[in-house]
Amino acid sequence: MRLTFTFVSLCFVVAACAQTSDNPVRTVENSAGQVVNTTEVESVAASDPRAKPESPLVLLRYSFGEVANDDSQVPDVTLVFNRDVYQGNKGLLPAGVAKRSLEPFISLWNSVHSPVENIEITDWRIKGWGSPVITVDLPRRLAPNMSYHLTIEGGALVDSDGRKFEGIQDPSVVMFSTALRPLTNETDLGRSCPGFPSTVKSRFVDDTVSLALHAIGEDTPQAASDFGYKESWLAMRPDMNWRWSRGIEHSWVHEFHRLPLDLDRLTHSWLLPESETVHRIGVDVELQLINSDGQLCSVVLFEDLERSDARYPTEVPNLPGAGQLPDYERYASFIEEGLPDPDVQSVMIATSWWEDYGPPFEDGREGYYLDQPIEKSVVDGTPMKVALYGVINEHIIQDFADAFEILAVIAPSLQAGFASTPEEVTLSVHFIDNCGDESYLGADLYADLGCENKGFASTVSRNQPFFGKSYGSIQVAAADWQRRERELLSWDKPYPSWYQMRTRQTVFHEFGHILGLSHNRCVHSSVRAPNSHKQHLGWSAEDLKGIAAIHDVRVPQGSTESGNDYDTDLNMWKPDGAYGNGRLAFGPEVEDLGQIFGLLESPDWDRMQSDRQSMCEVDLSGTFWDRLAHKYEEKYQSDPRYADWYQRQQEWSSWPDCYEAERIKDPRACS
């Protein structure tokens, strides 16, 4: 692959820069002993800081190693500094809170500011420590005809005296672009699928897959019907490696597509669909055929294809109209009144996690409360800006606007609202279509997407590119949305299922998880597990208290990967983490919050800590939190969508708190 590199005020074309750049070209030896040409940084060329020991650590020159035209790998990056360089270190959490240090990154980004590769400063791929020449190996495959840039976090590098390199954040400083490179493939279908006597020749260029079927050993294309094939499709799915290496943004849920092919055509072409989001992801393209015996043959034509900039949006979709924007003054009287200080119940809700793990108790009860560290892994002060992707209607936009108005009261530091540009997005919300049945995608893609009954929240893991910069993502199955709305208006079951509220409660349930709430057994809570049929139109009073405590400015940041790090059999955090290389769950825990808020001596502390369900049994009637929850619901009293909900709410006192099957598992929570 031919690579062209561009720097500010510099020209850098591999093996040609010496003829076209006015900046001096120096020959240096990198950590692998290879001789490379480097281009001098113009801003420091006039005076050499190496003669001034008191000067800051600065980058003098940088280069990318030369690669062959057909090489799909990223070349090594050589960075030349004014003095010897050592590993820096910075922590996302204040001292005494983090259980392990968080290393800064050197990062590779694409042209739409989506991260391709994050390398921790302690990674083996960064070489040359203790010398002024550092080599960075960036081994990601790159898309043809694409622009990329490199960033270095401030403090990632230091000199021998501990002076920090200020970093590189400007995307125009270290840039390079890849050349256009067509891909070709020829596959013998008979080898992969007995009974399919043909070959397929395919090509990928300019974001288009083209193909033709041939008789074995022949060059003349033939129609699929000539071979007796009864059906044929091209299918696109997100590459599996990309999903989980960068899957926390979950943009991949929009990347399943299928194109039926005309059985009588000799050649076919498919311009790959545009991406729903700006997040780069590789895709696999497959040919699927059904022969005369009804057998299905599926062969992968290309793996890990990357589309060009033209197939990615430059704007955030589904922006709210002027009349849909949140009114941050709606609850001005509550803002003026001021938030009550967190109490013991607030702390317990913020740090408790209920799941039906482990064996049943002797009396038949199932489920346990576990201590949950606070989940706030985003750098303090990062605004929560939401982008809505997929199948969106005005009600969904209103749900989020309602949530933002409430957060302006209970968690103002989040600055929660809608993102207006891709660069602002710190929380991605995906509403996925075609989840009602498999007819659109076909059985295999439908099963791979796994979107039926989808509704979950994902925070950002430490090894993922957006760690510290993103609140994560929410995924919701959105098929047959109007059918669910009709169910809401005409519900006739004796005990309405929570499913009637899915069009709204899924938003508040998953959004609650993103904000740090874990499952509990509080009857009215939006994050109750399993969900209740006595839920509010938004967050309950208990939820509001928990969210306010988590996002109190006195509570430090923290990150929790509970699914990996918690031993549910022993009811404890694994000391060495799930993989034996360090615990990934850390942050303030219940005792920390008790100390922060001065609650350890409260008469309720020991009682509620040892009996977590009691946190759900506090009467909050008439409190700030109860009044705020009801004030929020007043705006929908005349909305016909919720007329049935208001009617049922009047009957709550005569209903059991949960479904019949749950009473055996947890009689107390189902009183």
Could you describe the 3D structure shown?
With 671 residues, the chain is an alpha+beta fold. It folds into 3 domains: 3-178, Immunoglobulin-like (Sandwich), CATH 2.60.40; 183-311, Immunoglobulin-like (Sandwich), CATH 2.60.40.10; 322-670, Collagenase (Catalytic Domain) (3-Layer(aba) Sandwich). The chain has 17 helices and 32 strands. The strands form 8 sheets. It has a 6-stranded antiparallel sheet with strand order 2-1-14-12-8-9. Strands 3-4-5-6-11-10 form a 6-stranded antiparallel sheet. Strands 15, 16, 17, 18 and 21 form a 5-stranded antiparallel sheet that branches.
Keywords:
671 residues; alpha+beta; Immunoglobulin-like; Collagenase (Catalytic Domain); 3 domains; 6-stranded antiparallel β-sheet; 17 helices; 32 strands; 20% helix; 23% strand; disordered N terminus
